[in-house]
User: What shape does this take?
Amino acid sequence: MLRFATLALALSSLPVLADDKPSGGSDTPSSATFRQSGALLDRNPQKRNMMISVFVGFPYGYYYYGFPFGVGGRFLIPILHDGFIPPVNDSFGIEFGADLSGVLGAYFYPTIGLPVEVYWQFHFTSKFSAYAKAGVVIEFNPVPYTCNGNGICRGYVSASPIGNLGLIYKFSEKVSFRAEAGYPWIKVGLGFDL
Assistant: This one.
C-alpha cells in the first residue's frame, strides 16, 4: 500500500512540474523553470506564510481489521524562511495539530492523536513543493490496549514516532492541495495560508 501511495504521489507531481513552461516552448522543466521567482534555484530572501490544513486519511499503521479512517488538522509555523541550503529555495518549520482516527468494524475504536513534527520543505516552482516531516504523536485511547496487526498494543496514553513525505500544489493565492504518505497515515487535504 505504501509503495502504491508513493508511486501515486510521484506520478501526480509530473503535470505540476510541467505547469511553468520554459520559454523554449517545451513541456519539459529546464533550469530556467527552476530559476523563476519562487522556484527551486531562486536565491532571493523568502517570506513564508503560516498555514492551517485539514486532512482526511487512511491510518493504515494502526489497524489491521475493518476499514480505518481519520480526520485531522495541522498548524504550520515557519521558523527558517530561507532554510538550511543557501543555493536552494527551501524552508524549515514546525507543524502541530490533532487527529481523530478509528476503524469501522464490529466495534468502533477511536484514537485521538496530538502530533508535533519538524517540517522541511523544498519549493520546486512557485506553485509546487515537496516536504519531509518527522516527529512524535501522543495518543489517547478510550479503549485500552488496542492492538494493530504488528502486535503493538496501546494503552490509554501512548507515544509513537511518525514521519511523512508530502506534496503541496497551490491552486490559488491562499489555498493549496496537500497529500502525504508515511507512517502511520496516508492523507489528502487542503492548506490555507494565513
